[in-house]
Design goal:
The protein is an all-alpha fold. It has one domain (3-182): CDP-alcohol phosphotransferase transmembrane (TM) domain (Four Helix Bundle (Hemerythrin (Met), subunit A)). 82% of the residues lie in helices and 0% in strands. It is built from six helices and no strands. It has helices spanning 3-22, 28-54, 60-83, 89-111, 120-138, 146-187. The longest helix has 42 residues, at 146-187. The radius of gyration is 18 Å and the shape is globular. The mean pLDDT is 90.
Length: 188
Amino acid sequence: MNLPNLLTIVRFFLVPIFILVYTGGDVAATRISAALIFFIASATDVLDGYIARKYNLVTDFGKLADPVADKLMQLSAIGCLAINNRISMWILVLFIFKEIIMILGGINLLKDKFVVQSKWSGKIATVILFICVMVILATDEAAFPKYYATILMCCSIIATIIAFFDYAQMYIKIKENMSKSQVNKEKK
């Protein structure tokens, strides 16, 4: 167990803690505490990726578990905001739908022993989502009502859609290359 993988495991444990803290009340301290937990989880994501690449500690576990931990935290935050009526419920549904498609595509590639690496478009979409969620978590609904929060989340949705199509293109190219490779093997 290396440090990046340990940080990923910590992120898994932060998900239920975030949910418990966020649902613990609607006072300013609760909002700020939830925002702090979300920030720590996001910081461990950046830190584990940096350490893994810099010190060549990339593992198969990390390649699979890291994005799962990230998505669980992101969906938990979006879910809490939607259930608490801080953002529109359709935003949660859209993110869940996108994640289901991404998971199915990832599983399909994993069957062929191919693990998808993150792309810059995905990283940018994650940063935008982080900023949007942090702003909404840290602000009072009176100061930042649902209407504004939903508009802010639309910025994240646009970045997410761009990243989604970027990953879809990559998926199609990978599958085409696998098919060509299989055809070439059969010809030999």
